[in-house]
Design goal:
2 domains; 12 strands; elongated; two-stranded antiparallel ribbon; 8 helices; Rossmann fold; 316 residues; single chain; alpha/beta
Length: 316
């Protein structure tokens, strides 16, 4: 069986892989915990800074070594829908310590370090869960512009961002004296981003604690405002794929009944009447063209009709 797939034959994922980054104190960890049924892999020892009300029913792994992570990923994680890596930069430090001990990595070490990082991303992907990476903010110069980017080594950054569905920059904005936390997934001239499902260009992250640190609303921003719209987009694609499959099956069934010029002309007269989806009309025309060729039918452009070719008798 061929591994080549048409657009309508592609497997539609049901999970999201994303990264949130921003400067310290922006509430990145709390925002990450708003994903559905998360397991927090705390590499940064940052869970202690999260308001306790946001940790209700949240399980956490306080990672002390890379071996801790290797062990956790072998456990039964079926009760979780999301894995949170906080922070991905600190996670890289654990990998370096695992590979190099206390010494600084040399050039020859980076092959093994990057291989271990690739193993992690592959393993997380294989769990069929949402993955949220949390990262601190760094900067990159582009001419006269300063662009905010996740704080990661360049090779690791390029590797992980390529594999992400969404990359969001979290920051505090002052609008008319009012401080508001916002996140954008759009790449701009001041921040990196990745927005594969047309989320709003700028989203306000609501404050859900009062002045006494008590919750005023459920912590579900990522679940309701990011992942749900993303999965709805994917579900829409799946519905379109199912419609496409159904119409192509119907077209193929009709083409099976073409046996001569009359039935070919009858099909051609109603080829546009099918409830076409995407490229189904083009596919119908290709299937029909292959059929009339197999039947050796002739097309008269003047009358726009097919006729059966007359086979000339051989001369003796």
């Amino acid at each position: 069986m061929s591994l080549i797939r048409k657009a309508n034959e592609l497997e539609i994922p049901t999970t999201v892989k994303m990264m949130i980054y921003g400067q310290a104190g922006m509430g990145k960890s709390t925002l990450a915990l708003s994903a559905p049924k998360p397991l927090l892999l705390d590499f940064d020892n940052g869970v202690k800074r999260v308001n306790m009300s946001h940790l209700d029913n949240i399980d956490t792994v306080q990672v002390k070594s890379w071996s801790d992570l290797q062990q956790v990923l072998k456990e039964n994680l079926s009760g979780y829908q999301t894995i949170i890596v906080d922070t991905v930069g600190k996670m890289m430090d654990f990998i370096i310590g695992y590979k190099c001990g206390t010494r600084q990595p040399s050039i020859r070490d980076w092959g093994g370090i990057n291989a271990e990082f690739s193993w992690l991303t592959r393993t997380l992907s294989s769990l069929n869960k949402n993955v949220v990476f949390v990262a601190h903010r760094d900067t990159r110069k582009e001419g006269d512009d300063t662009v905010f980017i996740p704080a990661l080594r360049e090779k690791s950054y390029n590797s992980i961002v390529t594999d992400l569905d969404l990359l969001g920059y979290l920051e505090m904005k002052n609008e008319n004296g009012v401080q508001r936390r916002t996140i954008t997934f759009d790449p701009t001239n001041r921040n990196d981003g990745k927005n594969t499902c047309n989320l709003p260009g700028l989203m306000v992250v609501p404050t859900i604690l009062d002045n006494h640190g008590k919750p005023t609303a459920k912590n579900d921003f990522i679940a309701s405002k990011v992942i749900t719209p993303y999965l709805s987009m994917l579900a829409g694609k799946k519905v379109e794929q199912q419609k496409y499959d159904k119409i192509i099956a119907e077209i193929k069934e009709n083409i099976e009944f073409i046996t001569d010029a009359n039935s070919a002309n009858e099909f051609a007269s109603r080829i546009n009447e099918f409830e076409h989806v995407g490229s189904s009309l083009m596919m119908a025309r290709n299937l029909f063209a292959a059929k009339v060729k197999a039947l050796n039918l002739a097309y008269d452009a003047a009358v726009k009709k097919y006729s059966d070719k007359i086979v000339q008798p051989s001369l003796l």
